[in-house]
Input
Amino acid sequence: GQQVMQIPQYQHVQEGEDFTTYCNSSTTLSNIQWYKQRPGGHPVFLIQLVKSGEVKKQKRLTFQFGEAKKNSSLHITATQTTDVGTYFCAGAYNFNKFYFGSGTKLNVKP
Amino acid sequence: DAGVTQSPTHLIKTRGQHVTLRCSPISGHKSVSWYQQVLGQGPQFIFQYYEKEERGRGNFPDRFSARQFPNYSSELNVNALLLGDSALYLCASSGLPTGTGANVLTFGAGSRLTVL
Output
């Protein structure tokens, strides 16, 4: 069935190091969204990617959508302690309901 | 402006009982989606409603049902609770109907259900 896989499950970094999380789908996605969930909180929308090969930046965050629209990545440059949380991708097929990945839990040591 | 509000925030039930969770979307939003988030996992889609009609259903048993009211608020009902139903239930509202490609989800804080 339709499923979005996300790796890694956990990532521990030293403050200032970079971080990347990856999402992959076996079938072509119509669009993909990224969310951040702080410990004890709820998912908060970060960005949406729709076009093949699209790249979007938000300050230290860079989001990419693959050419085949089957994979996506989120890269954080020079992590800060405020980046701590779990990052989820959510892929859609035919712009309909979203399938969330299992998330990557980021821990940043000061 | 109030965001997405959910009630109750926490509740404890025993196996076999029934639960009703409530959600009020952002003012002006007509679409409400329900997600189940088990600890350590990503949210799993349960239902989506738009303009009071069911627009999507995830892979959940018939014990799960939902409805949307004329004011666009929504209820999620779960019958015959099982231990495995223990989870954070998230409601998300969006302003646009499905299929538009701009269906950004705004989540509420969730209702944490514990089944004993």
In short: The mean pLDDT of chain B is 91. The CA atoms of residues 2 and 27 of chain B lie 8 Å apart.
